Amino acid sequence: MANAEKVAAVAELTERFQTSSGAVLANYRGLTVAQLAELRRALGEQATFSVVKNTLTKIAATEAGVADQIGDLLTGPSAIAFVNGDVVEAAKGLREFARANPALEVKGGIIDGRSMTPAEIDRLADLESRDVLLAMLAGAMKASMAGAAAVMAALPTQMARLAGALEAKRAAEAPASEAPTAAEAPTAAEAPAAEAAAPTETEDSQTNEDAAADVAVQATEDPTEG
Which of 96, 91, 83, 104 is nearest to 27 (CA)? Predict the structure, then answer.
């Protein structure tokens, strides 16, 4: 490979490491060209699968800042599945192909900046895909919104019932608050006595007039008489 081609290959690998959501390294020894083509079809839009040279890939990994995560995996025949879509779907595709073609050996990889062992990548394939998770989330949100809508729809009825109950309570309490209490109302025995004890206005004025007449008579009598 000419020097210019090596530089271009390193630049391409570096960009893939930087822009992909994950990279899974595999040993492809024993796979035929037809099987490799079948694997690429199985991955579809989720990932690209390319045979790489370890020396150039180490340089690219260093430039991309991921040499510590995958440097030890670059031994023997190496191929890399650069994940462009759902990492779970890519892991599922690799596992299904490896089950049908045991010659494919997953070495490990890096997903979202974290190094992954072959066992971890296999467990990743057990997870639900992104589309399934989004569908589940949408269903949960729809159910939550439906519940909230039902609560909001019931509020006017509940408020009307509350207002009616408060009005009925006020109506029941109103006569009791206006009526005099037992302490304030005079008893039947006390009422006549109070009326008898209090002199009327007519009796008071008559008494005063009689006293004034007596004084006037005494003043007009001749003191020599008698």
Answer: 104
Summarised one tens digit per residue, pLDDT across range 130-164 is 444 445 456 656 656 655 566 566 666 666 676 77
Q: DSSP letters of 28-71?
A: -TT--HHHHHHHHHHHGGGEEEEEE-HHHHHHHHHHHT-HHHHG
Tell whether the model's pLDDT for residue 81 goes beyond 80: yes
Task: Please give the pLDDT value at position 161.
Answer: 72
Q: In the chain, at which residue ranges do the beta strands (DSSP E only) sit?
A: 22-27, 47-52, 78-83, 105-111, 114-116
State pTM to two decimals.
0.56
Angle at 107 between CA 131 and CA 85, to 5 degrees: 20
Q: 3-class SS at 222?
A: coil
Tell me how far apart the alpha carbons of residues 174 and 9 are, in angstroms, rounded to a whole number: 93
Question: Which residue matches tokens 């040993």?
Answer: 27
Question: What confidence tens digit (pLDDT) does each residue in 165-221 have?
Answer: 777 777 777 665 554 554 444 444 444 444 444 444 444 545 445 544 454 444 444
Amino acid at 144: S
Return the SS3 of 191: helix
